[in-house]
Amino acid sequence: MAATMASSPSSSSSAGGASNTTTTTTTTTTAEERAQLAASMPSRNPMPLSASQEAQVRDIYYARVRARCAEEIKAFAACALGRTFTVAFMCSDQQRKMNSCMKVHATQEEQDAAREEWFAKRMERQKERERKARRKAEQEAFLREWWGLPEKDREEARREMEKLKLGERVGGFPSKDRRDAGWWWWGGEVMA
């Protein structure tokens, strides 16, 4: 890191009449050093997600990286079209360009951006789920009426709609019957 030292003497008289000097350090970093520091730091989105939610974030991340390298991917695909085992020899330049582009854009910042995009679209996904559930309930009511089946219990229908409004779980909840200490084969007791 490039650091510059600037000393600014400041005199102040104390009870003994001595003067104090203070030194101020100013640190400047280059863009490359910031990128290295960001790569070594953990993600700025520490919220734990479930496995399926992480898979959705990963899909967004992959799509973002592929979108940034679309030209290189198209060039490689055009070269590979109609080839079989000769792809490795004939399209090595295009493959190298495609892979280097993907390595450049596959960064922690891109993963963080994908995670932020996933969180930003949570409300959209919830509204879409509610819309589908309402449509399903309408279709079910129509089929019950059409076939002369008894109506669904109103209380059950209300509970289903309430369940939809709860939203998506992020981070999860602890199990009610889970013990905090020990392993399952120790019977829940901590061995000291």
General description of the model:
The chain has a two-stranded antiparallel sheet. Helix 3 (70-80) runs antiparallel to helix 5 and helix 7 packs antiparallel against helix 8. It is built from eight helices and two strands. Residues 1-26 and 181-186 have low confidence and may be disordered. The longest helix is centred in the C-terminal third of the chain and has 26 residues, at 122-147. By secondary structure, the chain is mainly alpha-helical. The protein is elongated and about 70 Å long.
**Which regions have little confidence, pLDDT < 50, spanning 5+ residues?**
1-26, 181-186
Instruction: Output mean pLDDT.
Output: 76
What's the alpha carbon Rg, rounded to whole Å? Answer: 30 Å
Query: Biggest β-sheet: count, sense, barrel?
Result: 2 strands, antiparallel
Q: N-to-C SSE series?
A: EEHHHHHHHH
Structural class, by secondary structure, is mainly alpha
Strand content: 5-15%
Instruction: Tell me the total number of β-strands.
Output: 2
Shape: elongated
Reading side by side through the largest sheet, how are the strands ordered?
Answer: 1-2
